[in-house]
Amino acid sequence: MQERAPELLNLVACGEAFDSSVGRAAKMCVDAGVSFLGKVPLDPQLCKAVEESRSCFSDSKCAASAPALKQIIEKLVAT
């Protein structure tokens, strides 16, 4: 990220932007008539993998998010 988008390094990320216990994303999908594919937990290791251009499935560092992503991918491929 430092090489390709250094201007983004000054931004602050907020991990509690949405109350995940409410289910607003699922309701939004119902209202829009589309399938809700699932939730991916906020995972700093996933963010780091993206910044380093590596797969979150290649090691166990993304243990919190990789299973959720895999389930969503499987749903997409099945449709």
TrEMBL record:
Stretches of the chain forming a coiled coil according to its record: none
Looking at the UniProt record for this protein, which Gene Ontology cellular component terms does it annotate, in alphabetical order? cytosol
> Which Gene3D superfamilies does the UniProt entry name for this protein?
P-loop containing nucleotide triphosphate hydrolases
Molecular function as annotated in GO: ATP binding; ATP-dependent FeS chaperone activity; iron-sulfur cluster binding
Task: Please list the GO biological process terms of this entry.
Answer: iron-sulfur cluster assembly
Query: Which PANTHER family did the record assign?
Result: CYTOSOLIC FE-S CLUSTER ASSEMBLY FACTOR NUBP2, NUCLEOTIDE-BINDING PROTEIN NBP35 YEAST -RELATED
Q: What is this protein called?
A: Uncharacterized protein
Q: Which organism is it from?
A: Daucus carota subsp. sativus (Carrot)
Which lineage ranks, top first, belong to the organism behind this chain?
Answer: Eukaryota, Viridiplantae, Streptophyta, Embryophyta, Tracheophyta
